[in-house]
Amino acid sequence: MGNLTAKQVDSLTTPGTYEDGEGLRLLVKPNGRKYWVLRFQLSGKRREMGLGSYPAISLKLARQNTIDQRRLLLGGIDPLQARDDIRAAKLAAEELHKSKAVTFKNVSVDYIEAQKTGWKNLKHAQQWTNTLATYANPVIGELATHVITTDHVLEILKPIWTTKTETASRVRNRIELVLDAAKARGLREGENPARWRGHLDKLLPPIVKGKRTQNHPALPYSQLGRFIQVLGKVEGQSAHAIKLTILTACRTAEVLEADWREINLQAKLWVIPARRMKGGKAHTVPLSDEVIAVLAKIPRINGSSLLFPGAREGRPISNMAMLMALRRMDQKDLDEGGKGWRDINQRIITAHGFRSTFRDWAAECTNHTREVCEMALAHVVAVGAEAAYWRSDLLEKRRSLMDDWAKFATSTP
C-alpha cells in the first residue's frame, strides 16, 4: 500500500480504478462518487469487498480496514462472511432489546386495538382491558413477553381459580391469546404458558360447570308493580335506563348504548343494529305506550345522539350506574322497614335480572307462545333445518306481548 496520497484521492475525478496496493483500490464512478474496494483471493477464488465510500472513509481508514481484513485471511476466515456474521449478531441484539422493551401490557393494548372492530360491542373491549389490568398486569404487565412462564400464569390464576371461576377462565384465555399474538410478532418462542389443554389442565383443577354459570338475581314478578312505583320517584338517567330495560326486556348493554337514530316514535319501533346484539342479528323492539312515555321524559343532549350519554364523549353511562341505583333503592327500602329489592335467594337484584322477571311472568301469567316470548328476548327459537324455514319475526304478536307486559309492570300494586 502507499501508491495513493490523500491529495490524489481528493482530486481524482476521471472515472476508473486506482490501485493503492495490497488489493485496496479506489473506484471513481462517472457521477464522480468514489468507493473503496478490497480485492483478495480465498480458496483459489478472487473476491471483492466494499469498504465504504470516500470521503466518509478516508485513505487512512481504508488502509487500516485493509490490514484488518488481511489478518482475517491469514487465519483462514472469510472477511465477507465475518462481516455478515457481525451484522446478524448486531441485528439479533437490537431485536432482543426491542422485544425486552415490549411488555405484556404493550402487546395486550395492541391486541385489543386490533381485535375490537370485530367484537360485537365496545363493552367487550373494556372488559378485556379491565380484567387484564386487575389480574394479569400486577404480575406480568411490565414483563417482556418472552420471559413470562407458567409460574407467572399460576401466580395470577390460583388466587381466583376456585372463587371466581368464570373470571379466572376468561383471564387465562385472554393471557393465552395475548401471548399467542406476541409469538406471531416474533416477541417470544416456545409453548404458550397459559395454554389449558395438555398444560395447565395438569396443574389446576377443572372448573365445575355448575359454578361457572350463575343466574342474575331477578325480582319476583309479584313485586314488580311496587318496584316500578318506587322507581318512578327516582330521578336521573339511571332510573330512566332501568325502566326502559324493564319495559323492553332488552339487555342492559342494548339499552345503555341506545341511539335516538335507532328509534322511530311514529312507528313505535326500536331497531337495534346487529353489531350491538349478542346474537349478531338486528332486533326490532315494539314500543308500548308506556315505553313512549319514558322516552318522552329523557332529555336530548346537544351534540350526542345517545339516549344516555356519559362523561366520556361518544360513550354512554356505565352499567355500574344502573347497579348503584338499584343498590341505593335496596338500601332505602331496608331503611324504611322493607325487605329490600331481593331475589328469592336474598341477593340484591340486577338490571339484567328483569329479563328473567319478564320470562317468568310470560310463562306463568299469559297465554303467549314460547316462540313469541323467546323472540321478545332476542333468543334463538329454531336451529338447523327448522331455522331455515323460520322467516317471520312475529312482530305484531310480540307487540301484543310487550303491551301486556308494560300494563302489568306499571299497574298499581
How would you describe this structure to a colleague?
The structure is a single chain. With 413 residues, the chain is of the alpha+beta class. It folds into 3 domains: 6-97, Integrase, DNA-binding domain (Double Stranded RNA Binding Domain, 2-Layer Sandwich), CATH 3.30.160.390; 104-212, DNA polymerase, domain 1 (Orthogonal Bundle); 221-410, hpI Integrase, Chain A, CATH 1.10.443.10. The protein has 17 helices and 7 strands. The chain has helices at residues 6-11, 59-74, 79-101, 104-115, 122-140, 150-157, 165-184, 209-212, 224-231, 237-248, 252-256, 289-297, 319-335, 354-365, 370-376, 384-388, 395-410; strands at 16-21, 24-28, 34-42, 45-54, 263-264, 269-272, 283-286. The strands form 2 sheets. Strands 1-2-3-4 form a 4-stranded antiparallel β-sheet. It has a 3-stranded antiparallel β-sheet with strand order 5-6-7. It is elongated, with a radius of gyration of 36 Å. The protein starts with 5 loop residues before the first helix and ends with a helix.
Question: What is the structure about, briefly put?
Answer:
It is built from 17 helices and seven strands.
Secondary structure layout plus pairing:
Blueprint: H1 6-11, E1 16-21, E2 24-28, E3 34-42, E4 45-54, H2 59-74, H3 79-101, H4 104-115, H5 122-140, H6 150-157, H7 165-184, H8 209-212, H9 224-231, H10 237-248, H11 252-256, E5 263-264, E6 269-272, E7 283-286, H12 289-297, H13 319-335, H14 354-365, H15 370-376, H16 384-388, H17 395-410
Antiparallel strand pairs: 1-2, 2-3, 3-4, 5-6, 6-7
Helix pairs in contact: 4-5, 4-7, 5-6, 5-7, 10-12, 15-17
